[in-house]
Design goal:
By secondary structure, this protein is α/β, with parallel strands linked by helices. It has one domain: Metallo-beta-lactamase, Chain A (4-Layer Sandwich), CATH 3.60.15. The protein is built from four helices and eight strands. Strands 1-2-3-4-5-6 form a six-stranded mixed sheet. Strands 7-8 form a two-stranded antiparallel sheet. The longest helix has 11 residues. The protein is globular. It starts with 6 loop residues before the first strand and ends in a 5-residue tail after the last strand.
Amino acid sequence: MTSESTIRLKFWGTRGSIPCPGPDTVRYGGNTTCFEVTCGERRIIIDAGTGIRLLGKKIMLEEGNFLNADLFFTHTHMDHIQGLPFFAPLYNPESDVRLHAGHLGDQKYDLLGIVGTMLMKDPVFPVPSALIEKACSLMIIPAVKFLIWETELLSKPVN
């Protein structure tokens, strides 16, 4: 992690729609969207595209696979959620990951339901979503202001 006053931004994935890692995408990366913002021991993750797998690997190897963080979804298109089942810290029931999906606030969608019935359901995926539910809590907050790190954020539908 970084010092208490240094804010650090790391791009774990920047591609849209289709992950395409390889020699042609080395400069900007080939994984789909995932950003990490850290300040001291605090961590925010933005989106869970395929780049989140590499972040999870780092947390697993360097931090004992324990995560206390807020994960914000800009929206829930497949390229922004498809890495979630491969994010190792979610399989540690001691982790505390707060999922924020403000764009779903007024709609009848359930993010954990989407994960459990589409991303992590047999025969599509061999591991049941129940294994990550102990580490996750879902925060569906409609377009409102809220505080995180003593900073006011606005969650608002944009897509």
